Amino acid sequence: RGGACAHSGGKMASTAAGKQRIPKVAKVKNKAPAEVQITAEQLLREAKERELELLPPPPQQKITDVEELNDYKLRKRKTFEDNIRKNRTVISNWIKYAQWEESLKEIQRARSIYERALDVDYRNVTLWLKYAEMEMKNRQVNHARNIWDRAITTLPRVNQFWYKYTYMEEMLGNVAGSRQVFERWMEWQPEEQAWHSYINFELRYKEVDRARSIYERYILSRAWVKVAALVLVHPEVKNWIKYARFEEKHSYFAHARKVYERAVEFFGEEHMDEHLYVAFAKFEENQKEFERVRVIYKYALDRIPKQDAQNLFKNYTIFEKKFGDRRGIEDIIVSKRRFQYEEEVKANPHNYDAWFDYLRLVESDTDAETVREVYERAIANVPPIQEKRHWKRYIYLWINYALYEELEAKASKRTRQVYQACLELLPHKKFTFAKMWLLYAQFEIRQKNLPLARRALGTSIGKCPKNKLFKGYIELELQLREFDRCRKLYEKFLEFAPENCTSWIKFAELETILGDIDRARAIYELAIGQPRLDMPEVLWKSYIDFEIEQEEFEKTRNLYRRLLQRTQHVKVWISLAQFELSAAQGERLQRCRQVYEEANKAMRSCEEKEERVMLLEAWRSFEEEFGTDATKERIDKLMPEKIKKRRKLQAEDGSDAGWEEYYDYIFPEDTANQPNLKLLAMAKLWKKQQQESEAAAMDPDKDIDESQT
After folding, report:
1. How far apart are CA 563 and CA 542, in angstroms?
2. Mind listing the domains of the chain with CATH numbers?
């Protein structure tokens, strides 16, 4: 019975345990969404912010006896070993473990840990460095040497091992040991800095001969490495320069010169470098060997491409300025600038500004044949497009060429050939240059060859007539006092350009100077009868001034009346009034006032009210000077009222652009403006009454005391 109970009791217990294992699912009664929704971004941000919260520091543990210390060590070692067991390749765990053992002065244990770590990853540079630094800090010199030997044997291309090993030996005073390490390092053909470190090490101990031998080995080894590796790039020049400066620094000048000469011979003409020659020249300059310096510079400049010799040019120029004569300095500057201009014109032959600068340089310092050669090269670059704007700079090459031949070379025959070649080249049917024709004619006149000059100008007028050509030809004949030729030229000119008012005026002035007044008047009559003129107002003014000079006042009045039939411009009326005022006659004031009256009536229908105001102001000025009180009062009544108005504006697309204020004039004479004037007068009266009522309201007897209120 007891067994059955026990059996049943165990069954109930297992059933109860099984029931306890079943998780209870919480039933959510309200499945509606919460009012405040939390996004995943908010959750991540909150988690990130909580990471930054400072956790309370762990409690300090004080160890009071040896058992606690051993227990602490056991726990820490177990933690480190567990971390290493989890991931053996994480070297930081090994280093922390070893440093912890080192802090407890357990050097043997730390050494064992480093050895175990090296078995895992012997290529880790940090591991070797920490291992060696531990031995050096604990003054285990032999152990440190052993580690450095193993490190440089295992990883010979890690320069940091070699640097630290040599530095340790040097700090220990073991100069021979340090030199031995350097020698082992140099067998691996390291980079430049390693060689220089070895050289500086020897120089610190005044071993100049050893340093020289290292330089020799370094330069030869570098050259051998380059050739053996089939690298076509030549060794660097700076190593040779450093070697030579080392010799110079220690006053071995013959050795330094020999190094430079060996470098020049080694690189040859295929791999010339300007830095080597600059350094060589500066060395010779310091030795006061100025002729040697000049030979070096010239040798290099003759063989190095100009685009790679900018620094060489610069240093050569400085040298000549310091120790050379004026001619040598000028030769250097000119040759350098000539090279620059040559490069520019090669890059763009149609860059005429570069040609101008080049020619200016050549003219100042070379012979005539060289200058002619450069000019011929320049003028051979004809603009590819026959448009005048592309030829405007080019034509000055021909002009300068002709002037050079005439003024500098004194070759009149070649000058004539230059002008004729240029004129044959120009496409006269499309465009021409009057300047070129005129310069050619002036040159022939200077050569006392007047028929050729006239023939050239006549050809120009026949091929491509232009205003400037006619003016230049006429000016030439005027200077020669050939007035009949001038008349014929003016006739041809006016047939070519009848709308040119200046030509008509100049023609009439010529006839006036010659005393032929009737011909001048006839020319003016022909001019104002032309259907199209470019400046008619200038022509009419000149005609009127001409008649006034001849004191033909009646003809002047007739001219004004004829002009007023064509235009009712206010300036014409004012000019007529001033003419009547200046005419020496008894009725001049009455005539002048009559002109103003007539002008005022004629301009009532004028849309431009400002012109009418201008006329009235001129009239008022006249009356103030010459008029009576009655005439002054009358003109004052004619003056308009100036009022401000608004008008609606429209944009280009037709939309509303707002309002604009402008000033308008209301003339009392106009019957349509009478209601406006009455309204304006009533408005002024109302404004005056308002001001009077405001002044009465501001009476102090009627003010109310604020305190009583």
Report:
1. 13
2. 234-320 (1.25.40)
- C-alpha 53/C-alpha 629 separation (Å) is 101
* N residues, the chain: 709
Short-list 369, 364, 426, CA closest to 397 = 426
Which residue type occupies 75?
A: R
Q: How far apart are CA 462 and CA 466, in angstroms?
A: 10
Its pTM stands at 0.49
3-state helix, strand, coil in the chain (%, to 5): 70, 5, 25
pLDDT digits (tens, 9 = 90+) for 1-23: 344 333 434 433 344 344 445 55
Q: Which amino acid is at 457?
A: L
- Supply 658's token pair: 């707002």
**Rounded (10°) CA dihedral 125, 130, 136, 137:** 160
Convert 219-250 to b/e letters by CB count within 10 Å (16 or more is b).
beebeeeeeeeeeeebbebebbbbbbebbbee
The closest alpha carbon to 219, from 196, 202, 235, 201, belongs to 235
Largest CA distance in the chain: 171
CB of 297 closer than 8 Å to CB of 311? no
Q: Which of 237, 238, 235, 316 is nearest to 282 (CA)?
A: 316
* End-to-end CA gap in the chain: 115
Q: Is 503 exposed, middle or buried (0-12, 13-18, 19+ CB in 10 A)?
A: buried
Nearest CA-CA partner of 600 in 626, 630, 623: 623
Separation between Cα atoms, residue 668 and residue 681, nearest integer Å: 12
Rounded Cα distance, 15 and 22, in Å: 11
Query: Residue 263: which residues within 8 A CB-CB, separation 6 or more?
Result: 237, 240, 241, 244, 276, 280
What's the rounded Cα separation, in Å, for the pair 438 and 453?
9
Q: At what angle do helices 175-186 and 141-154 cross, to 10 degrees?
A: 10
Q: What is the pLDDT of residues 260-283, one digit of tens each?
A: 777 777 777 767 777 888 788 887
Q: Find how far residue 253's CA is from the centre of its chain.
A: 49
Structure tokens at 251: 């006053």
Centroid of chain to Cα 124: 52
The pLDDT score that the predictor gives to residue 95 is 92
